[in-house]
């Protein structure tokens, strides 16, 4: 799968074990996190750069939802399903605020038959609250609407999902077109990949005119790197002098830089959260290392 994504030449949103907290899946939260981390680490080994990992809840506002979370360094987007019921996805929206992540409504369908009844009533009851929740939360960056006649599929027939195709109702369809034609939305086009900045996905962070996360993370038995209890990153060389070291946060902001020749660096990262990227020069070799600040 990782090789297929890498060769696809397009940005891919990957939902690993979507609706992880849905009781119908019966996932162990511990095993779920282990599986997630294993997959992401394997993809990193394959240098898959055009993938974003989406951690998607069932949207049922599970308490203590963080017990399912693999960690900030392993997740790009938070997601949830929006079907019926009140306040879908609130636990994810709160979690996204705490962890500074964008949100995707990864599945949305009204669970009502749009062929039946008044179109404006359908819109007012389900679609308008959905779009209001999107416009009122700047972290919600993507919507995947399931536009399908559920009853035409034997798996779902008779379960109350109905026909969610917006074109099945003239009023709903016109309201939909009016909404998505607004400037807030990116639509399919020949320039879609440019608009979604695919090149940045593949190159990740550019700093000092060099692509840093776009190259493999080189490991060396000659370097010992760890975060101590005083919010200091310790870098120790067991094979000669380190000639330079620098540190950056995930946005590319430089946190530290030194060209002092030494066999040990202590880098302070006070008040820094999330991923820190280290660039270390040892014996004319450049090593890139990632470490979580907290």
Distance between the termini: 31 Å
Number of helices: 7
Query: Mean pLDDT, rounded to whole units?
Result: 87
- What is Rg? 23 Å
Largest sheet: 5 strands, parallel
Number of distinct beta strands: 14
Q: State which percent range the strand residues make up.
A: 25-35%
- Helical proportion? 10-25%
Unreliable stretches, pLDDT < 50, 5 or more residues?
205-218
Q: Given the helix and strand composition, which structural class is it?
A: alpha/beta
Strand order of the largest sheet: 1-2-3-4-5
Provide the succession of SSEs: HEHEEHEHEHHHEEEEEEEEE
User: Can you tell me the overall shape?
Assistant: elongated
Condensed summary:
This protein has 294 residues and is an alpha/beta fold. It has helices at 2-8, 29-45, 90-99, 119-135, 170-180, 192-195, 198-203; strands at residues 12-15, 51-57, 77-82, 103-108, 140-145, 206-207, 210-211, 223-227, 232-237, 242-249, 254-258, 264-268, 275-282, 285-292.
């Amino acid at each position: 799968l990782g090789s297929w994504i890498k060769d696809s030449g397009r940005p891919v949103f990957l939902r690993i074990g979507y609706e992880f907290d849905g009781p119908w899946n019966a996932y162990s939260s511990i095993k779920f996190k282990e599986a997630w981390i294993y997959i992401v680490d394997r993809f990193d080994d394959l240098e898959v750069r055009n993938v974003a990992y989406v951690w998607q809840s069932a949207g049922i506002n599970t308490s203590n939802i963080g017990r399912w979370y693999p960690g900030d360094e392993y997740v790009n987007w938070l997601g949830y399903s929006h079907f019926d019921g009140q306040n879908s996805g609130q636990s994810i929206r709160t979690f996204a605020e705490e962890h500074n992540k964008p949100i995707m409504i990864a599945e949305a369908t009204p669970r009502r038959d749009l062929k039946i009844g008044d179109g404006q009533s359908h819109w007012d009851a389900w679609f308008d609250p959905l779009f209001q929740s999107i416009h009122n939360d700047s972290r919600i960056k993507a919507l995947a609407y399931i536009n399908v006649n559920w009853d035409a599929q034997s798996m779902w027939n008779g379960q109350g999902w109905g026909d969610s195709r917006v074109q099945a109702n003239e009023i709903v369809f016109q309201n939909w077109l009016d909404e998505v034609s607004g400037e807030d939305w990116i639509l399919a086009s020949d320039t879609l990949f440019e608009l979604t900045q695919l090149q940045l996905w593949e190159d990740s962070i550019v700093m000092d005119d060099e692509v840093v996360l776009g190259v493999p993370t080189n490991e060396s038995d000659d370097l010992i790197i760890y975060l101590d209890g005083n919010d200091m990153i310790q870098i120790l060389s067991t094979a000669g002098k380190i000639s330079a070291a620098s540190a950056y946060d995930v946005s590319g902001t430089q946190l530290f830089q030194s060209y002092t020749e030494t066999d040990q660096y202590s880098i302070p990262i006070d008040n820094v959260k999330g991923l820190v990227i280290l660039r270390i020069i040892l014996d004319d070799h450049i090593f890139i290392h990632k470490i979580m600040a907290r």
